[in-house]
Structures
1.
Amino acid sequence: MNESDLQPGKLGDHLSAKEVNTWLAMIPYARLIGVEAEDKEDALIFTLQPKSENVGNPLLPALHGGVVAAYLETAAILNVMAYTQGKRIPKIIDFSIDYLRSARTEKTYARCELGRLGKRVVNVSITAWQGDREAEPIALARAHLIWPEI
Amino acid sequence: MSLIPHCKQLNMQVESVCETHLVLSIEGDERFLGNKEEGLIHGGVLSVLMDSACGSAAVIASPEPEVCPTVDLRMDHYRAAKVGKKIYCRAEVTHLARQIVFTEGLIWQDEAKPICKGTGTFMRLGAERTPKGFAEQIFGLTQETKA
């Protein structure tokens, strides 16, 4: 794979949410916090079920910032796996998250974009929102992962 | 930690607290696996630990306890944490500004082999925007730590 193969749309096909969700058995913590994949039109999106155990600030209440980070890291991992036939769980290199709004205890959605793809490293941008307010994200995250050999 | 639902679920413990830094820990539980086959802990669990440790350091550094929501968090994963071994996170405040607290943290299982370095930035909401009872909760936490 070289730089010219790095454009979106040249990644090849991704597997469906149904297949992605079978991998959750290998990722117990993703199940503990309640991450799942869903098909939305042609895209894969990732959801976080509302759970009282995911709360970090009971006074608001708001989801624990760390849980939102864990959820978006999982979304990036599953999204990469969806493009690599789920052969292996990619290793994380680094992860960075900006919190834009406090996240309520309600269903949360996330979409990933595989921005730049080197031979061994993939850059994933992740946007998270609640309700139908995709234009008003609660958090933006970015992750670098090792691209699994297929 | 027992007052924060997710920290309670993870059974997060306070190992030590002083004016400049604190150490939190979690067990290397199977519930926290991110790769069951290889026995590796999910990087996200480490984010929870880092955010909790850096956030607690930020709260403690403020003259009066005030709510400090996370502005951003950055994690550099040097190596994976393994299941079955306790995980520690030491966090400290690097700079306390009027409205912002800058923090850093380090995660390890083996002290000689750092697992993850984290940087967290927190907003100081100030006493007037801090809900009533927050100081008592923090005070409760301190009591629990001393016990």
Note: The helical segments of chain B are 5-9, 43-61, 134-146.
2.
Amino acid sequence: MGGMRFVSFTGALLLCAACGDPAAMPTVQPAPPGPRHLEYDYGVIPHREARAHDFVLDLAALGPVTPGSGWIPLHVQLDCSCGRAQLLLRGRDGSERVLDGRPVAANVPAPGDTVIARVVIDTATREAMDLPKTASHGTVVLQPVDDRTGARRVRWPLLLRFGIDAPVDLRPFAALDFGRVPTCSTAEVATSLRGDANHPGVTFGRVVASDPQLEAVLEPGDGSTLLRVRCHPGELGNHRAVVTVETDLPGDYVVQVPVTWKVVPDLEATPMAKVSFRADLRREQTVDEASGQFVLVTDHDASRPAEFVVRALVDAADHDATAGFAITFEPVPGQPRQQRLHVRYLGGHPDGFRGRIVLGKPGVDGPTLSIDLVAFPTRDS
Amino acid sequence: MMLLRPVALPVLWLLLTATTTLFTQCTGDSTAAASPPTATVAAIGEPIRLLISGSMLGRLEPCGCASGQLGGLARRMQHIGERRSYDVLLEGGDLVDTATELDVLKFYTAVQVLTGMQHPYDALGVGPKDLELPLDEFSAFLAGAQVTAGDLESRREDWPARPFVEKDVRGQKVRITSFTLSLPAALQGDDSPVRLLPPKAAWQRALAGAADATLRILMLQGTDTTARNLVPTLSPPPDLVVCCDAGQLEPASQVEHIGKVPMVFAGIRGRVLLEASLLRTPDGSQVVVDLVPLAGSKTVPGGGGDPDVKALLLAHRDQVKQDRILEHMARKLPTPNGAAYVGSENCKTCHPTAYEAWTRTPHFRAWDTLVKAEADPTRYGWPVTHYPDCVGCHVVGYREETGFVSAEETPQLAGVGCERCHGPGSSHLQNPAGNKMGLHAGTPASVLCIQCHDFEQSPDFVYSDRWAKIQHGLEPK
């Protein structure tokens, strides 16, 4: 988007100033030496089910910290978004106590206590798709009881392997995203549901959408069932909901399809209602210099003409500033409701400008669209 | 998902509703009344709901090269837009990792998203890496944003950071400051336009004019050890410390404490956000946290997220291509052993078995993978083959002298060839016996791999598993 472009970037100016690594690759701090990782294979988990495993940490592997001291298990970090973990101490009598993460002596395991990292993989948090066997990582963080700064913490790695088997295939979408939905319109997306090779005869039942702005129905398809979801925009902004489809699969399995959308006004400037640029503000810009200074403006309401007119161009104090800028519109090929609004600086604001352009519709008093306009002077201007 | 919550906190904390937040933004005017509050006064009210992140390090979005990647500005802003209930949005600083041309463009885009869209951030901290950027660009991009750097002073007229920012949330004042704690080398001289204040003085300045009941939040750029040493010296104490510790890859699901002061971690790269509810009680500040992993859909193009942010990121990608940033950044660094890259074909004659093994691996096809991904609109829809962050892991020697420049100019270096792991081979080619090849710059294999196969880009990477897929031995001499 040229409207977001700063024209002053020059290669010579911005050469790499502080690149220490060989090729600007992402780097990770090497982990300090620690115990060998604990590994567990959860197998292939049926979708929407959870599996738990207790990793038992033998703190003797860490060696003594200092005489009379000990290690405090603090917390567990997991890489995957569907994992949950907690740390427990299991006493000799089998009772369990959840550790609260505080580095205090009360959380040092007593003699005979077993330290457990209980890691649950909950596949219900993932969309209904098969996941081939994969690996994921975690760490248990432990701290010596006499360490007041956390500088001597140890990270004990965990390696988790698991896969997910979803009994229903959703194609092409396991999640639905309507993108932008203007208030004047409705949007519709469909995806097909079909039992996988192990569940070929599955039938689908009631469909429920968690948001009243969504309307979801099932239709027979070609060898599958079509889930058709219609979005009635509602309140402006981002939205998320879930469409649930009942099945006759064992365990009351339901298919849950996440749905997202963003309701936008009928008049909009994208990707943001702002044009900012840097230029030598002591003089008028040439057309070429200003070619990247644009924003896309759209009127989604087809009952009105697509064209816009400039109602006002004012500075931050609401004073007229139309003499300082030339505003032009250019059609966007293939987008009849959209235009490029170009801004070219003419002069009169050598120290910079902050203000706004107010657009309206030709010949009517209807809605308006306000676009911020910011011009920075180049450093030597 | 957090399993544990401090039991002493009222259950009501967990039932926060999307109460409309009426607020006014105030500037951190360093000329305000000079005396900071001297005592902590309990102010029991509704908890303040925060969303915390930091150390984005240039990760505007996951690259999409592996499944299960988390994070990204588009998903973040979608999440914020859906919730509509956060009182204060905090970003710790270090939006970028280095100061290349690409980083300047990234910084600009990140600032636009965080400050210019529907849900502008209430406080942006300043990290030392941010200050490596050209100060003209840094200042211009942040002009007008809610930027705070409590321990920095500058003589620049356009310096965008304030000693603090303050927000009124349902009548409760929340004051936020950020400590950068260190300056990049280029700003450390006597004539530097930016000066670092001692923490105690900076804290006093940041609290100038604050009422006792004002909630005090300190974001700091440093390790938790730094925080543990620093925070006890601050009076009155912060109600919350947000530690932007690059060693803490993700926020912890449990709150830590420095004395009675709660401390949370922002994590890095914005993969997992931290929700926090902050309340001051007679016993001190209490915080409840929850993790928000920003997972995406595998079947929604780009993994989902706010469509306007996605459009802005797409514009950023296009601009990177248009400005030929890939080529500009190439060949700027010396090779580690001073030799030149020659391409894998030159290895084939003496190492035919290893070469054959390589041709059967994804490394051999790494460039084609990028080309195909770019052509697939459901996966990308943007010029991946022109984006330095992506290209660097799919070619040999990008950014180094004699290394990859572009598919047209250096086709022999497209793909992850022999020299990506073994280093440039010209001297070995001239004198194989005298100039033995090992691993690139003597880097251990496991560390070499995670330069690309890191926790984010290869979340399922296990060295022993992957080595089995690319295994190749020494050739008989």
Note: Chain B touches chain A through 97 residues (CB under 8 Å).
